[in-house]
## 1
Amino acid sequence: MTTSYLPPISWWHKWIEEGMPPLDDNVPFCKRHGLNRCCIDSPNGQLTLTVPVSRPGTTDTDSRLKVSDLLVSEHGDWRHKHWHALESTYFNSPFFEYYQDDFRPVFEQQFEHFTDLNTALINVCADLLDTKQLQALLPHHRPMYGKNYYQVFAHKHGFLPDLSIFDLLMNMGPESVLYL
């Protein structure tokens, strides 16, 4: 498995199920795989956030480029826009107030390499999920993955499956690990 920007719930489920192996970023980057995108819930339905990336020495991407080579571009003030989207969307969710101070510093920091950004976000999520404790419980754990969980805007547009882990954490808090 390779890193991904605030990966979807299915990514986390698979990673935990496989015993949380080291992530391999020495794989080709393909725009279609969406490794630099995440989907969140919003008042208007699913919203996709994309981290602008570039390869060393140029501003465009190449399909032969490896994920480990990708650089984070500061094009379009994406860090501020992403944090604002996350904050305005999840401000009224049950756990945003508790977790915002864990995530905000990552969005305030400038990362040169895309994998460093992803690693920082995955580490925050793994700490909040307490994945080490979950791994010890795996033989006895029965995940709820696939069932609906509480989402702030479900009353407007229904349940949106397989969003970013950020959605699950903000809505379910410590119980998120049970869902995975």
## 2
Amino acid sequence: NPPLVIEETALSVEIGGEAFRLPALVVKEAGAGRRLPVALVTHGQAADEEGRGRVEPRAFLRTARDFARRGWLAVVVVRRGFGRAEGDK
């Protein structure tokens, strides 16, 4: 398997006219072309406030790696109100 490029980052997004930064993880095969199909990966709903605070992109690294090895640009994003993402749920 070719090596993977794994980048921890944050996405700057606008939702309802407000700007937010959402933690993200981007994974692709090293040397992959610039134009790849995108697999957007996100989480489900947490059962409680404590669970919402623990959500992080790296929890989905295995899934992102699987997509990247199949030729996708995998982007894991934490939605607002979860983990270290800005904004309310």
## 3
Amino acid sequence: NMGFDLYGMNPKIKKGSVKPADVDFQKSSDAELKKWRTLHIKYQNDNVGIYFRNNVWWWRPLADLVIKLCKLLDEKQKEHLHDNGGYEYNEATANYIADTLEAFVKSPVAKRTEIAHKKQMKKADAYNKKVQIKLDALRVDAIAKTGNKNIAPRDYPKDLNDKWESIYRERDYTANYPFALKNVKEFIQFLRQCGGFTVC
């Protein structure tokens, strides 16, 4: 699973907001599916406590921030933010996380955190480009040795494969983990409206 899906356990639903009836995806026409999708997205946008999703790259820094700031969470609660097991967080916990994140967002630390994160990503990115140059040079060697222009690293001769493995391990993964206050704010809105949530 390349992402984290958070579902509100008892989400607040806006007055007059009606969940679109489920459609048969096999039998529906494109027009019917398009209409259903539009209504479904509107329903979720009107009722932000139903669902919150981040891909794994966005979720890690957000979950880490929660773990760092929310001192009252127990070890189990912290641990389960990083797995898809459907662990339940009750409404009081959801509100506590929201309050804590809101205080963070309003503090001068928030903007600094976002800026520092962007700088770190840029640095990691530049560094990874250098690693990539080494990998490209190794590829040229592998092609020269084997005569195979489409060779994959796993098929490199043993000495070159070992070298590839050790260079690849030098990559800096912070380049892949974005952090933005906008994402934190959207998460706060979900937390306020979800009535407790599960992480799937």
